[in-house]
C-alpha cells in the first residue's frame, strides 16, 4: 500500500464532504510517535457519514468486502490502494473520541490528519483485546508502547474509565504503577 497516495485521496474527500473521522490503528501509533508496522489504514468514522464514505470508496475502485453494524472493510484490486477499514462511532463514548481527535502532521508536514488521542486509541485497543482473546498480546503490546512513550502526559482518569468499562481495573492499576506512578 502506498500510504501517502491513499491518505491524500481519502483526506481530500473527507475534507470536501465534511466527514467526521479520526485515524486509529497501527498508522495512528506511528503518527503519535510509536512506530509499528502495518499493512492497512484504520479510521473511526461517524456512522452518519458512512454513506458518503461508502460512495467515495467505491467510486475510487474499492470493494466493500465486509460490513456490519460496527465496521466496514474496503479492499482495492490495485495493490498501491490496499485495504482501508472503518469502525463506526455512534455511541456517546466513541463520538467523544472523534471530538477529541487532534490534527497532526505526517510525512514531514506534507499532510495533516486527525488522529485519536492516545487514551482513546488505548480504549479501542482494550475493547479489541477483551472482545477477541486472540488479539490480547498484540493489543496490550500497543497499549504498553503508548503508555511507555506518553507516560505522565496521558489522561489517566480517562484511561481508568475505559479499563473500568471493560472490568479491567486490576490491569489498569498494574499498568499505572508501571508507567505513571514509577516516574
Explained architecture:
The mean pLDDT is 96. The strands form 2 sheets. The protein has a 5-stranded mixed sheet. β3 (62-67) and β4 form a beta hairpin. The N and C termini lie far apart (39 Å). The protein has 2 domains: 1-116, Beta Polymerase, domain 2; 117-183. The relative contact order is 0.14. It is 50% helix and 22% strand. The chain has 183 residues and is α+β, with helices and mostly antiparallel strands. α5 runs antiparallel to α6, α5 runs parallel beside α7 (156-165) and α7 runs antiparallel to α8 (169-181). It is globular and about 50 Å long. The longest helix is centred in the C-terminal third of the chain and has 15 residues, at 136-150.
Tally the helices: what do you get?
A: 8
Q: How much of the sequence is in beta strands?
A: 15-25%
CATH class of the largest domain: Alpha Beta
Gross morphology:
globular
User: What is the CATH third-level topology name of the largest domain?
Assistant: Beta Polymerase, domain 2
State the helical fraction: 40-55%
- H and E string: HEHEHEEEHEEHHHH
User: What is the architecture of the largest domain at the second tier of CATH?
Assistant: 2-Layer Sandwich
Strand order of the largest sheet: 1-2-5-4-3
Q: Detail the poorly predicted runs.
A: none
**What is the makeup of the main sheet?**
5 strands, mixed
Distance between the termini: 39 Å
How many distinct folded domains? Answer: 2
Structural category is alpha+beta
Radius of gyration: 16 Å
Number of strands: 7
Integer average pLDDT: 96
